[in-house]
């Protein structure tokens, strides 16, 4: 597939990894912000190509992992309402709430449907006028334009049976939260390329200056990630702390103006709670007053008990890169993909699930060089 | 779902989830925790696609499968094709020549007769292609809303032709792993017409009878250690089942695993991994390395396995680890564990 | 965070009712309808990055080849630095 396969080419990847080895002299701890980047790193075994002195830490950029448990509980309660069709991306169905996930609710008879796009929820609303269609609108800046356009269209069509349960979060405030933590050891960031397609990367200059960290806007294929690491290491080895763009084929400095305008017309910035991290000021989006009728939280008045998080789950520390999944006592025993205690074990991009699926633990290294290492 | 704080083994869930039918880890949990303890017998404990029985000196294989796919008709086939080929293939995976099938129908009140005709005609055609008669059957009807149009169960009997035992216990370190063609076509064909995900393209289910390919290997005298059709849970689940049953380490090469452009495009778009997508006309073969080239030539001469390739090898399970494992060498040279999928693979956006 | 996949615009239609731009996008052989309102200047034949049914950016073809030029430069630099062992 064009603009994908070239960035997975074996020789190009080896050449980029060799250049990283050539320029890195000291140990560096880098964070890839986005869950999609984590997925590629772990799925392709990219860490093996890096010098041991470079540590990649998984960041909080996975909406499944950071969506607060109270929001999952609200989605489950809404889905169980008889008149509701609850539409969601596949990612959110297995995330554990206080007592149930959306999949559990589905087995109790809730009408929960997987959709590829919020526009599919709009179509369902048109074809089911007697039902209340609710779209579980999670995601970062990349997904906000899609949800904004869907609400804008529904408003123009005067559709009264579509609403959104909004749990949108923003990347820069989360990066600042990670950097402000006293134990933060992250020295450089691979910023989330697809979010920057929408927002551009102007906002990162002040973060880079204030915290003196280099930030490289990076893509999602192995060659992109390796080039991003190379650009970070070059800066770090020379004591620089600037913002740079590796993902130039898709990201422009100012981002996508049309998308930004629609988003700010429909949404406004608000404080948001992040699962495992806590409340971060100005770190999310909510529907503006003019679109209040599309806000499922306002539309369905539900009494929910206080959310209960598993006491054992150290998701917050993992999401901030302060702990590795296998540092958690429950990892792989009491907490597995079948019975996840916390969200990072559910999403295939959550750090814990990634480690469980793609590399059980530190001492599994013998797996990779089997007894008779025949490499046809 | 109580919060798990005590170290006792995880209790089985209180309720059946869709994921229990996905062919992954939760399906295995049902088998290990509910069915096997209840029906304990050696034939079942082999955990193979079909049970082996000896009746008056004849070695027979018996298997059964139920089909609940939605939609009933999809690009490249119908629930009827799956019902015949799926059970015939399970017999073939035991190295048995399929002899006869039964067909049990559960029809929903209000089902259009034309739909039933279409499904039954496709069963007829598939049975003819596989040279297997449908010799007995049953039909029940459930109230409207209590079924999904049509559910079909088919059982099959076959005569074991393979000389030696075929199964995970015959797999050896040093064996090679072959797959009979490109992966993921069936799962993507189904997804392409599922509500909420529509996309167009030349997707066609790969549903087909595998016996001709197995028969060709057997009649050429190839010593087959293990066969497994790659249905629910895809190649990864099949390899994991065999690795854990055999206690060995299977390593596959991502760059060698065949996936068509159409299936790759759909998997990229929906965030799916083709190694976990279902097939209905593909199987894996475990044989000694010395037989690899000859087996590939034989397979490629059959239309159903014209795309056969070697995708990996079996290694000793090093150190104290008893349980088997599957690892993958990625396209860029890194490695990862190819784990059993838990529940159904769902399209993702991030 | 967000899966965005490059696809080629095969056709473009403008919906009369709300005047929205829709495009048929090809992803390595499969086709899906995608909203093009956020890439008004995209034309048939362009590649766009698509996320949850919306095109969010047009792939810059020149920039797409930049990394491969950089890789070739590494080889040149290496030859200069170690002329003997080139």
UniProtKB/TrEMBL annotation, chain A:
What's the source species' lineage? Bacteria, Pseudomonadati, Acidobacteriota, Terriglobia, Terriglobales
Q: What is this protein called?
A: Hydrogenase maturation protein HypD
Q: Which family does it belong to?
A: Belongs to the HypD family.
Residues in coiled coil: none
- In terms of domain of life, where is this protein from? Bacteria
Q: Name one Pfam family in it.
A: HypD
| Key words of the record | Iron, Metal-binding
Is Protease given among the entry's keywords? no
Task: From the record, give the transmembrane residue ranges.
Answer: none
TrEMBL record, chain B:
What positions does the domain PurM-like N-terminal occupy? 48-160
Organism of origin is Bryocella elongata
Q: What does the sequence similarity comment in the record state about its family?
A: Belongs to the HypE family.
What name does the UniProt record give this protein? Hydrogenase expression/formation protein HypE
Domain PurM-like C-terminal, chain residue ranges per copy: 172-320
Which CDD domains does the entry mention? HypE
The record ties this protein, via NCBIfam families, to: hypE
Biological processes per GO annotation:
protein maturation
TrEMBL record, chain C:
Q: Can you provide one Gene Ontology molecular function annotated for this UniProt record?
A: iron ion binding
What Gene3D superfamilies does this protein map onto?
2.30.30.140
Pfam families linked? HupF_HypC
Q: InterPro entries, alphabetically?
A: Hydgase_assmbl_chp_CS (IPR019812), Hydrogenase_HupF/HypC (IPR001109)
Biological process terms from the Gene Ontology for this record are: protein maturation
The protein's matches in PROSITE patterns, at most eight in alphabetical order, are given as: HUPF_HYPC
Q: Which domain of life is it from?
A: Bacteria
Extract the NCBIfam families matched here. Answer: hypC_hupF
PANTHER family the record matches: HYDROGENASE MATURATION FACTOR HYBG (PTHR35177)
The UniProt family comment states:
Belongs to the HupF/HypC family.
Q: What is this protein called?
A: Hydrogenase maturation protein HypC
Which species? Bryocella elongata
High-level lineage: Bacteria, Pseudomonadati, Acidobacteriota, Terriglobia, Terriglobales
